[in-house]
Amino acid sequence: MESKQGKFKKMLRDNGIDGAIVSSPENLHYILGFGGHQHTVSRHPGFSLGVMSSEDNIQTHAITMDFEAPTFIKKNREHNHIIKPYTTWVGVRNWDNLVNNKEMREPEFKNSLDVMLESINEMGLENKTIGIELDYITVNYYSILRDSLPKAKFVNISDLFVYSRSIKTKEEIDIFRQLCSVADNAFYEVSKIVKIGVTEQEMSQCFKEHVIKSGICVPSPWSMFSTGANGARLTIPEDGIIKKGDVVKYDAGVNAAFDFYTTDTSRSWVMEGASPELYQLKDRLYEAQRLMIKMAKPGLPINELFNIGFNYVKEKYPIYKRGHLGHSISMGPATAEAPYINSTETRPLEAGMILAIEVPCYIDNFNGFNIEDMVLITETGAEVLTPKTPHYL
C-alpha cells in the first residue's frame, strides 16, 4: 500500500513542526504503507514506531522488534524507509551456530527507546518541535519522552492525522469501494432472511458468514443486529426474535484487519403489523437522509448539510433531537471520526471525503431507527458506496 508520508510531511511543515514520532498502529501504517503485527495486536506504545522529519529529503525510520524486522524489510521493498530493529526476548538463532553449539556474537542490546533516540539525534530533532500522538500514548510514555528529550518541544498531532485521513487518496477510495461492496453484499443476504421469527443471532451469523467468504476483510466486532426495544439501545446481538410490528435495525460494518480501514452502514425495516406512525417515521428519516446525499457536494459547509437533514425531520417531529447526522470514517480504531456532520462544523465538504451519512431516531424501550450509507464526495456531488441493500423490504 502506498505511503501517505509526503502528504503528512507537508502538514507538519505548514504547522511549524520539525518532525514526528508516530506511535499508533493505524497512523504508522498510514505513514509507512504497512504496519506491525505485535504492535497492532497489543496497541502498546513502542512495539513499533516511526520517526520522521518534516523534510522530504530525509528518510523516515521504521523501528520494530528484531523478530519482525525481516518482515518490515520485505514490506519496505516498495518504499524507501530505513528499517531499524531493537533487541527483544525472542532470541532468534543462527542455524549453524545452533546445531554446532557455537556461541553467537550478540549485537549490542538496544531497546525501542534507545533506537528511537538514535533516530531523533540522526535527524537533528533533539532540540526541535516534535509532533507526538497525545491521544494515543500513555501518560507514562509521554513522561519518558519528556525526560529523554528535555530540549525538545512536543506538540499533539493526533488531530492532524485525523484531518489528513479525512481526504482519501485514489488508492484509499478503491479500498473503500471493495470493503463497502463486501459489506453491502452481506447486508443484502441478511435482508433476504428478515421475517417474523428470525433471531438477532441468525441475522448476525448470516452477515458474518458472507463477509468472511470474501477473503478480504472481517466483520467489525461491534456490529449490531437488533429488533424491537433492543434497537433503542447500544448493544451487540442478544436473544431478540423478530415479532409482528417490530422495527428490525442493524448498524454494522467490516474491517480490513491489519490494513485498518473500516465501514459503517445501517438499515431499519418496519415489520408487517406495525402502527402507521412507525411507517411514517421511517419514511421521514429515509427522505431526510436521501435529501442530504442529494445536496452533498464540494464546497457545502458541513453544518449546512446537517441542517438539511435535521430540519427536514424536525419539521414533522418538532421534538426530534440529534447531535450529529454522520461522520468521516477511515482507519479506526474508532468508527466515527472528525469531521462530524453537526451544527457547528463549518469545514466545507471536499472531493475525496468518505462519510457515513446517517439519520437515526431512538425511542426508549420501544424501537430504534438508523438510516445510514457510506458516501463518497466526488468532484460534482456524492456517490453512495452501499447501494445494493434495500432500505425497504
UniProtKB/TrEMBL annotation:
**CDD domains according to UniProt:** APP_MetAP
Domain named Peptidase M24 is located at 176-379
Among InterPro entries, the record links this protein to: Creatin/AminoP/Spt16_N (IPR029149), Creatinase/aminopeptidase-like (IPR036005), Creatinase_N (IPR000587), Pept_M24 (IPR000994), Peptidase_M24B (IPR050659)
Single GO MF descriptor: aminopeptidase activity
Q: Where is the Creatinase N-terminal domain?
A: 7-166
Its keywords, alphabetically, are: Aminopeptidase, Hydrolase, Protease
What superkingdom does the record give?
A: Bacteria
Q: What is this protein called?
A: Aminopeptidase P family protein
Per the UniProt record, the source organism is: Wansuia hejianensis
